[in-house]
Amino acid sequence: MIARPPLPAVSLLTLSYLRVFPGMGALLLVGVVCAAAGLATQPAVQRSSWLAAAGAFLVALPCLFAGSHFRALASRRSHALLPGFVQVMVVAALGLFGLLALIAAMLLALAIAIPVWLGLPVALLACSALFWFGFLPTPLRALIGFVLIALLLRGTIDPASMELHRHSVYVAIFAVIFCAIGWLCFAGWFQHRMATFRVFERSELAHWNLPMGMNVGQRERIGSAAGTLLLGIGDAWSSRALRAAIGGLLVPLGLFALLYALLPTAEAQRWIGAPVPTFLTLAYALGYYTHLCQRAAQRRPLLWLRCADDWSGLRRVAERALLAEWLALAGAMLILNLTLAACSLWRFDLLALCVVWLLALLYNQQLALYRSLSDAVQMAAIFAQLLLLVLCLALIRIGEHPALLWWFAAAQIAAIVTLRLIAAPRIST
Amino acid sequence: MTEPMLRCEGLQLHRGGKPVLSQIDLQVLPGQVIGLIGRNGAGKSSLLEALLGFHHLSAGTVTAWGMPVRQLPAQHKRRIGLVTQRDELLEGLTGTQQLQLIASFYPHWDRALVDRLSASWALPLQRRISTWSMGQRQRLAIVLALAAGPELLVLDEPVASLDPLARAQFLLEMRTLIADQRRAVIISSHIVSDLEAMVNQVWLLDQGVLRWSGAISDIAELIGPGADEPASLEQVFRSVIR
After folding, report:
1. Which residues of A touch B105 (CB under 8 A)?
2. Angle between helices A168-196 and A85-112 (to 10 degrees)
3. Using CB atoms, which residue from B53, B70, B77 is nearest to A83?
4. A108 within 8 A of A119, measured Cβ to Cβ
5. CB B125 within 8 Å of CB B117
6. Which one of A22, A33, B218, B222 has the lowest number of neighbouring Cβ atoms within 10 Å?
7. Min Cα separation B92/chain A (Å)
8. Three-state secondary structure along A350-371?
9. Which letter does DSSP use for residue A300 in this model?
10. Which of B74, B100, B130 faces A84 most closely, judged by CB atoms?
11. Is the separation of the CB atoms in A163 and A337 below 8 Å?
């Protein structure tokens, strides 16, 4: 029991959820604008697009980060000693979840004209899934990411399969069951965590902390001592190329093998449409490159052992090492796309997607290396998730509006240049 | 006899199969101001965390006010204050909001102390914490720990990121604080000279082993007889930890 009403603490913790990263408030405002635009638009298709965008910014975004924010809050040593902190945090989380689920249900009901009784369980299901995401162990989180991608692709290939009216009863039942399971898991995790208050390290909290070094047996060829020290893996071009090739080919091939093993051949072949291999490679690159950026940001101080330079100089070394990794990934992407073109599966709009994605990875690198070390990992992970969310949505309409992606690419370049201009003086002082 | 606030017996901690802390027996009594010293990686932070129940011990027990430290109820948690090596503030909040957040958990929050320290340390409370410097953040973390009026205050390298002026102010504040004989303070620091003026007990940790613990007045015994003049804590530290 705590002596005072926990209202101020609850409201402040809720407020902190909505400020997980700089600019989150602005993104929420964009969601409000999208929702207003959706309400003011008459044609049903345009209206649903606006409301879907509103849902992404107003609901999916806070939901996606709430889980990891929880983990971060629960892992603080000083919070573990606060009397009554557990109760306050649970109340804050439930309040936030309820609010987001309500907004999601309203947006769903407006966007696809389904009854509220059906919209609410769907919203609860979606919000719960995103909420749990932050509590899952890292490998499972990566798997869930691929499942979400697969679901979106299925929706793209066969839109009818995603129509909720057809499966209303099942959706409602699944929503109740999965919400219950998810929240029980959360409650169990949280109870255990706060009862034993085991300390989490920040690196454990990053969403894309995947063991993707592919350094089997620690036998990679070392290119330079500084680069290897920084990345923690061999930085020779041969090692780098091997990693990129494994990521670019093994990940799609593994999934296809799984699909062929589990599904009838005809059904499996539907999945191997043009976007799928490219998209899987892009998703792999996102996790792998973010992981490398995180590692480089953490290990940058070690460069003092090899380079007698100031922070700006060390940053340049790190940038060069990461850029080389990026080039290897871009090369793998190019080979994959040329192969697909030879198989007549390649589409021009996918090239735009690849370019945008790769530029976004560079932006991710800038974030990781420019910002203060303590925030770099989380910032990069957050950006990676945001990117995944936006591009998953974009992929659904990519065939109709490929020009949008090129504009997005231009925006990415502008962001990278701006970030360099803004952050460079801070680093050098 | 005075009841110990904190007691550990046979404390052992392993991480990744390697020993981090070995066979440590200690106790903390009211009025003690303990300086925990040791080289980087000696296990100072691990020891403090183990004493506060943040780790599963490989062996041994830690009790606080007679209760297992990992099962402390809220009324006893309230009696402990902690300043970590790296602050644990919520970056999305302003300084004022952070203060309000922590204050809401404590019925006897010392607002006067908060106002006085915030003013003398020039904390920009209206700005978001994400824009603060490391030193400013550390100062706020110290204010938060002090304002709760803890009986047992644990400070893990509290002055590492403070400038000399703020460090002097902090030490002054600490001297006032430790004058209260009902309170105990454990402070780890690399700056041994700071500790010397403040502590009355010393724990000397070396590679996870408690090499020595006792009153600071007895520390000269560590370098043996024959010294011409009383040895400083730093001299002892240098001679013992090679």
Report:
1. 2, 4, 9, 82-85, 88
2. 160
3. B77
4. yes
5. no
6. B218
7. 5
8. HHHHHHHHHHHHHHHHHHHHHC
9. G
10. B74
11. no
CATH 3.40.50.300 spans which residues of chain B?
31-54+70-79+150-242
Residue B152: Cβ-neighbour burial (10 angstroms; 0-12, 13-18, 19+) = buried
State both tokens at A88.
């306050």
- Residues ≥6 apart with Cβ < 8 Å to A283: A145, A146, A149, A251, A388
Distance CA B79, CA B137 (A): 23
In terms of CATH architecture, what is B31-54+70-79+150-242?
3-Layer(aba) Sandwich (3.40)
pLDDT in tens, chain A (429 residues): 444 446 888 888 888 877 776 677 887 888 898 888 888 877 766 777 778 778 877 887 777 777 767 777 877 888 888 888 878 888 888 888 888 888 888 887 777 666 666 677 777 777 776 666 666 655 565 556 556 655 655 565 566 665 655 666 666 666 667 666 666 766 666 666 666 555 544 444 443 334 344 444 445 566 777 887 788 777 788 878 877 877 776 666 666 666 666 666 666 566 555 566 676 677 677 777 877 887 787 777 778 777 777 777 788 888 888 888 888 888 888 887 777 666 655 566 667 777 777 877 787 777 777 655 445 555 555 665 566 656 655 555 555 555 666 666 676 677 666 666 665 544 443
DSSP string, A377-403: HHHHHHHHHHHHHHHHHHHHTTTT-HH
Total beta-carbon pairs less than 8 A apart between chain A and chain B: 85
Asked if B149 contacts B176 with a C-beta cutoff of 8 angstroms, the reply is no
Q: CA-CA distance, A321 to A376, in Å (whole number)? A: 17
Whether A309 contacts A317, CB under 8 Å:
yes
Q: Dihedral sign for Cα A133, A139, A143, A146, please.
A: positive
A323 φ, ψ (degrees, to nearest 5): -65, -40
CA of A157 to nearest chain B CA: how many angstroms apart? 41
- CB-based contact B86:A374 (threshold 8 Å): yes
Number of alpha carbons in the 13 Å side-chain half-sphere of residue A182: 22
Report yes or no: A280 and A251 within 8 Å, Cβ to Cβ: yes
CB-based contacts of A214, cutoff 8 Å, min separation 6: A233, A242, A243, A246, A247
Substitution target in A14, A77, A85, A191 with the highest count of B β-carbons within 10 Å is A77
Residue with tokens 């504040």: B173
Q: CB contact, 8 Å: B107 with chain A? A: yes
Q: Which helix (H) or strand (E) holds A326?
A: helix A311-342
pTM: 0.67
What is the rounded CA–CA span in Å between residue A143 and residue A146?
5
Closest CB to A20: pick one of B80, B92, B105. B92
Q: For chain B, positions 11-50, list CB contacts with chain A under 8 A.
A: 49
| Contact with chain B for residue A20, Cβ under 8 A | yes
Instruction: Compute the distance between CA of residue B184 and CA of residue A137 in angstroms, rounded to an integer.
Output: 39
Q: Show residues of chain B in contact with A76, CB under 8 Å.
A: 88
